[in-house]
Amino acid sequence: MYGNILDKNHLVDVIDSFYNEYKKQAPAFGLYFFLSPAVVITDLNVIRDILIKDFDVFTNRGAYHNKESDPLSAQLLSLEDSEWKVLRHKLTPFFSNYKMKMIFRTLLNVSVQTIENLKLENDLQMIDAKDMFLKYTTDVMANIVYGIDMDSKNELSYKFRNMGSILFEYKTYTIFKALCMLYLEKVSKKFGLKLIPSDISEFFLGIVKTTVKYRLQNKIERKDVIDILLKIELENKDGVKLSIEEIAAQCFVFYLYGFETVACTGSFLLYNLAMHLEIQNKLRDEIKMVLWRHENKFTYEAVQEMNYLQMVIDETLRLYPPIFDIVRKSSRKYEIANSDLIIPSNTYVLIPIYSIHRDPDYYFEPEKFNPDRFIDRTKANLHSMAFIPFGSGNRNCIGSQFGLLKLKIALIQLLTNFKILPNEKTPNPLVFDPRKSILTSSTDMWLTFERLLENLELFFAMAWSSISIIFVTLILLLYRWIKKRYSFFKINKFPYVEPTFPFGNLKGAGSKYHANELFQKLYIELKHQGPACGVYFFLTPNVMITDLDVIRDVLIKNFDNFHNRGLYSNERDDPLSSNLFSLEDNEWQHTRMKLTPVFTSAKMKMMFNIIVDIANEMTDELKSKKSLEMIEARDTLIKFTIDVIGMVAFGLHWSAIKDPNSKFHEMALKVFKPDKNFFMKSFFLTTFKSLGRALRMKFFPADVSEFFMTTIKETVDYRLRNNVERNDFMSLMLKMYTEESDEKLTLNQLAAQCFLFTVAGFETSSSTSSFVLYNLAVHQDIQDKLRNDVMNIIAKNNNKVTYEAVNEMKYLQMVIDETLRLYGPVATIVRVSFKDYKILNSDLIIPKGTFTGIPTFAIHYDPEYYPEPEKFDPERFNDENKAKRHPMAFLPFGAGRRNCIGERFGLMQTKIAIIQLICNFKILPNEKTQIPMKFDPTVPTLSPLGGMWLKFEKLK
């Protein structure tokens, strides 16, 4: 059934393998596409005969089209005989040099807008070159073909791109349809089988119908494709009169092949320039020199003089021709010259462009990217059919000049503004996407765009004549930029409170107020004005979601649009910052999947007794103290959780409980006791990630980073040298580090995950445990009830604290949940929108790249969900009350796929600590206990001002 094409690779690889096998045996060979025989031509002289000399035999492509039921299929690419010839003749003038000059300025304007949009990207370290080119070519083709001025950021542009890209995908049902059309053409037409999906057809037909109607009614003329086609229709010369559907079909094919093919070529070209910086520099030098000769004016004539640019494009088209083969159909029996081979009538003939372009008979070292192949003297020695990216003869690509011009303009703009570099996500080697009918990479074309400083200097040198004017101008530009930033929510119609420069809505945060208290105040003020509101974090706009249903959409239903946190990471200079919490996209997903097994119930059971032993050590240490009148509970629990992490994660005795000078204790505290510049540094690194990386800035203090990196490296080295295996977190990390795969962890990545497990594991659990003790001290009745419940369950389990016994302690869970409601360690969940997002049942749209926050602290204190929210009442979390509440009204660990991976582990060590303490001590307030609780504004997490001082009284 599959003929010769059953393969998991791209179709071009299959054809290429047969080409190399048979090309020496004859000027042509046969290939079966499913049940259809096709003749593949390998001899260049025969190819020239077919495309030029004997074109009358091979005029048609044999492509399916059906004007009646599938009007967009009846376009220039598929039309046949005289119908094709007349229409081609009518359309040819649109692609003349004269027309190219006329549309040059339009192309230039779109390219300038593309560069400006690119400069607005938060992170130029990771740019998908193909996506960028698709946006550019979409905007160009929408303008040139349909006369629509478009911006790649709007929804219509996205719809154009999406619908165009779908048509180049191989899918099972499209292959099935193609087979029906190939073998049962008349039946397919009779039953109205469509090549173009109905929704796509209706969309593009609708665009043309609306545009044509408006132009005819208002007598509007534009120098675009629709205009040319309208003139053909109105003039009715040579008996050619186009229907509105035929006009739409021609517009459609020009758009379709003008946006995807150029985008693929452009992305492949940038890839090769990134991989060959010497060629990139040479090309940039030529561009500069030619523009200098034209007084730095970007003109049509200047572009035509850039010979090396043409050579680079030609070499890219040689290696990656977007249309990798030419298909023709014989109209009669045809004898191949100088052979006994005869091509029967109505047989498909295929010319394998890709294989010819990579044939070592014509190109020395064909896999190598070498633009010098296309120097005039070298080209002169090349057979004319050895390079045919646009076909040849009467039916070559009608829009080749136009395609080259828009590609050149984009490349000139990019290379005069950026240096293109590979990065860790750049595909190498390139693999073609087998799901696509054209040549395109199977992965996104990730490249780094580095701004060229010299362009900035040139701009200032040409624009201003004195330092004072430059300074004033920069101040004005800064003012405009700030004003624009502070207009974000007004423009996007979100309710908001007027910001104060430079603090935004957080004036006093970190000094007078805790940031969460300010967020809560804004939440109360703006909650009833819509499902979301705007908050300025210094100069950065953040959308705060206040509606619980929308929160569920963001965290769960539409997770794909909010899967990243937008945090700063810099693996090169600050390796510990590239941890699971800050990783993005596939890197996060892969790491999360690998780490999940360490937090299963089975793993929790394995760790349980270790944690109990350390909790006993903590209670013994407390009992040994001379006085228990003044105990800093939070510090006690930090030492406990540090020792737990050391043992269950790394198999190390960190001895924080017994050693008052523990280095681990000192360094762990430093992470969550940042310096006074923490908020400003966080703002800067979040807002200007690329600049932060360029300046090699670090999020974590250097001594903290060095200490943990050294500790982890020594542990890794010891285990690998001594073949140490343990069922702990480090063993799992080592498997990911030593595995033989492309997805293995580097040592820096391993260290980052271990570091996160350490600091997150000790901070959240110690914070929660200490707040539980505080609440129990202030509410003795609840403490007594909890102690009785815990002791009764332990008694039922042979007076042993077991994993099963702890899971029976429902009231303990209720106490912890109520504590997490009041003092959740993470007070705001942050996400970044991957693309524009319309909030359900509202007119609000969250723009792409916008920080989006879920204010868990404010929600947990909302009287709408929790009456008397300041009151500590564990009964809020009995089964009956929980069932009445919206699931998003309680989010201490987040929700959805990016919730806290260590939730179960954190709760388990918290429960064990509380059980051991209340079974051995009565917890009481003392004169240093804060009542009511006040938070330390200088600490980003919720931390009691002045410490958590409590009195411990031994139980008899």
Automatic annotation (TrEMBL):
Pfam families: p450 (PF00067). The chain crosses the membrane at residues 458-479, 636-657. Its cofactor is heme. GO terms for cellular component: endoplasmic reticulum membrane. Its main location: endoplasmic reticulum. It is a peripheral membrane protein. It is found in: Endoplasmic reticulum membrane; Microsome membrane. Gene3D superfamilies: Cytochrome P450 (1.10.630.10). The keyword Nucleotide-binding does not apply. Keywords: Endoplasmic reticulum, Heme, Iron, Membrane, Metal-binding, Microsome, Monooxygenase, Oxidoreductase, Transmembrane, Transmembrane helix. The keyword 4Fe-4S does not apply. One of its GO terms (molecular function) is iron ion binding. Belongs to the cytochrome P450 family. This is Cytochrome P450.
